[in-house]
Write a structure and sequence with these properties.
Length: 158
């Protein structure tokens, strides 16, 4: 049976382990700069994100989700943005990803949020299939842009 709970500071090593495993899956390990200290500071001291741990009694922590609040000017309501969802490869196929999504959707609904949204890599067909199965719709007319690292610094200093 899957239990989803709010992470606490003592979960930081588990959170970092999941972040590194997710980065490895996404072929982005070289981009991970997070440390236990930086995660503790931003998640638990500054409350910049919410983290949920998915556990089974038999296997312990099998997945996690990290999300944060957004705001829709059109709806004049906050929303919930799912930054990361990860289930251990050996635990996939048990419905845990769906359960985590349902938990977060319920969280958004309880809080009277107008949206629950996330991004997915275009090559992650298994995730896309899951999202479409639960009724999520891709926002194909939108393209995500990002400034980070040296380009961000360059732009600020220009």
């Amino acid at each position: 049976m899957l239990k989803i709970r709010t992470a606490v500071s003592e979960d930081t090593p588990v959170i970092l382990r999941f972040i590194k495993k997710l980065a490895e899956f996404e072929k982005l390990s070289h981009e991970v700069a997070a440390t236990e200290e930086s995660l503790k500071q931003t998640i638990f001291e500054q409350s910049k994100a919410e983290v949920y741990i998915a556990e089974t009694g038999k296997d312990g922590a099998v997945g996690f989700a990290l999300c944060f609040e957004t705001y829709s000017t059109f709806l004049a309501k906050p929303g919930l943005y799912l930054e990361d969802l990860f289930v251990l490869p050996e635990q996939r196929g048990n419905g845990y990803g769906t359960e985590i999504l349902k938990f977060l959707a319920n969280t958004a609904q309880i809080r009277n949020f107008g949206r629950f949204e996330w991004s997915v890599l275009d090559w992650n067909q298994k995730a896309i299939d899951l999202y479409e199965k639960i009724g999520a719709k891709p926002q194909k007319e939108w393209t995500v842009y990002r400034l980070s690292g040296d380009p961000l610094k360059s732009f600020v200093n220009s």
